[in-house]
Amino acid sequence: MGVFDKDRIEEIERKRREWEEGTLKRSLERLGLKQSPVRFYTPADLRDFDFLEKVGFPGEYPFTAAEYPSLVPELRIRGGVSSLLVRASSYSGYGTAEDTRDYYNYMRSAYGRRGGPNIAFDLPTQCGYDSDSPMARGEVGKVGVAIDTLQDFELLYEAFVGDNDLDKIASNFTINAPCNVILAMYFALAEKRGIPLDRLRGTPQNDILKEFAARGTYIFPPKPSMRMARDTITYCTQHAPNLNTISICGYHVREAGATPIQMVGFTLSNAIAYVQLGIDAGLDVDTFMRRFTFLAWSTGMDFFKEIARARAGRRVWAKIMRERFEAKNPRSWMLRGGGGMGVPTHTLTAQRPLNNVARCVVTGIGNAMSGAPPFGGIPYDEPMGLGHSLEAQQLSLDAGRIMQFEAKLADVIDPLAGSYYVESLTDEAEEQIWGIIHKIDAMGGAVAAIEKGYVQREIARSAYQYQKEVEAGERVIVGVNRFIGEQELEVLTTRLVEHPYDPRKRAEAEEKQLRSLAQVKRERDDGQVQATLRRLKEEAKDEGVNLIPPIMEAVKAYATVGEICDVLRGVFGEYEAYNVTA
Amino acid sequence: MAKERRIRVLIAKPGLDGHDRGARVLTLGLRDEGMEVIYTGLRQTPEKIVQAAIQEDVDVVGLSCLSGAHRYLFPEVVEQLKSKGVEDVMVLGGGIIPKEDVPFLKEKGVSSVFGPGTSIKEIANYIRENVKRK
């Protein structure tokens, strides 16, 4: 039942017409305008709005208000220090395993960072090539750490022993196509340290569908790639139940050019495909959903629409899980990790970069308006290359503190619930998101839509549309396509580099890694390596077999990431990208 | 009057970087600017890029890299073009290229480097004004 009386709505509509013909019209005439540049919303825009059906209570179906019943802002529980900053690392890793190990040790001693690593891997590792592959030239140790064999993992994790041993920390791995190889290394390392797998906590990214759609570090074709994801879900559900199995990403889909609605539609379609994997493998949905998480959103600056999109996304997912997959546990209905409208990375500019602080405050407020704590976003110097400066990190942290403690934005959840404008935008967003999900369902699901190139093509089209709007001046970006005249002041920034990413180490990383890889290859038992790879090849041919155990045998024999992936390439084939611009 | 030959451009992603929003947008954008544009797709070795540039008889090769491997990959493409006797193809760079690397890349034969926020028009005009083959 709606909260508004029908007669009252009619009265509002009548009054609105009077207002439009009277007060508004007179004002517009005075201003010399034909049409009002601003809009005003009333209960008539919502009509039969039903609070319990549309919003509900925080942490309850349909989760429109928030995923959790009460927000516990990071800043509050940590005494004013963001956990993002005290973690052993934000997303990090560079050079060789030893360089990265030293980095973690340094961050702990110099900045008091604690907890587990959030490991960035270099591109050869992410794409399943060894450091000595011709494909890896120039890329070794860039954008992340080079991992070729278990030995690299052993070296890196020398920074995590004692109070920081594997059963006391959580590890994050931004790895997708070779996710099970990295997990196998983590499991092998735990075994060597005598730590049972059920004590391990952490999150691998493992969202291969968005790699095809947006991020590009795929190896195998979609179907065998999905089998690998299924293996993670089934193996971990049984052996490592405290490890998240997947982090489903909308973020990269948006960064690649998707519109806000496409981001949610494509991502939830991908998520549906992953849930189906677990169900098809015969697992109980409420059991394996406990370990699904989302690295949900990237946001634009269109404040209210992004808030509505975030609220609608949670509602759509709750309906999918409860109605379509018939999950019983409310926890399974939650878009876990999908709080708030997200981070505004793609909106940040290299031009007049301090303006990015303003952008991050706008979206920080937006996060507080859409079911998350206010969040200072990302350091302003993100578009200037890797390695956030200390000053940029301080500004970002302080922005969050100001939003929380001065503006008191963390004192209320979903303050726009019931807003005539935001609720009607939320309904609109929900309808559009369903439109995309149904379209992809009709194509046979996310895997089929990606095989056909539909998702890739749509994203490319939206990216181009965005650029055309920027160039036509229809989409204003301050300091880039507007307000760039000579009378504007170029605000200068100074950046101190937080960590002395030793330029010498960076320059030498490739050479050093090649030497250590050659040494591992000399010292390992080749017969054993070949035997484990042969077994992997045989098991890979049988679609029903879970490949994590044979991969573990191979990594324990110090087979390389590249060797393991080559065996799988031989069985699965390689993905040939759909040419979106042909 | 003979129809003017359209400028032919190869947009390429050298290395393993998967961020090709810029490459895709530029491919479509330069087409709308009247050029013939071919996009290689991801994960191209310098060898493959040079081969494609020769086969497709392009006037311009636009390289995009956001992974930090540009200091190796861009000069490698220029060198390999030269070693095949191709001297009149303009090589452009784009992506996340730190300012301090630009002089190095230019010295190595990259004609110009375009960073985030550059408009398609700006790149198209640069190509028209500076393309070596006319």
What does this structure look like?
The complex is a heterodimer of chains A (582) and B (134). Chain A is mostly helical and 582 residues long. Chain A is built from 23 helices and 5 strands. Chain A has helices at residues 6-31, 51-54, 74-77, 83-86, 97-111, 123-126, 150-156, 179-192, 208-215, 222-239, 251-255, 260-280, 285-288, 303-324, 355-368, 390-406, 420-443, 446-451, 454-472, 503-523, 526-541, 548-556, 561-572; strands at 118-120, 170-174, 201-204, 246-249, 292-295. A 3-stranded parallel beta sheet of chain A has the order 1-2-3, covered by helices on one side. In chain A, helix 12 (260-280) packs across helix 17, helix 14 (303-324) packs across helix 15 and helix 14 crosses helix 17 (420-443). Chain B has a single domain, classed as Cobalamin-binding domain (Rossmann fold), CATH 3.40.50.280. With 134 residues, chain B is of the alpha/beta class. The chains are: A mainly alpha (582), B alpha/beta (134). Chains A and B meet through helix 6 and helix 19 of A and helix 1 and helix 3 of B.
Shape of chain B: globular
As for the number of domains of chain B, it is 1
CATH architecture of chain B: 3-Layer(aba) Sandwich
By helix and strand content of chain A, what is the structural category?
mainly alpha
The tally of helices of chain B reads 5
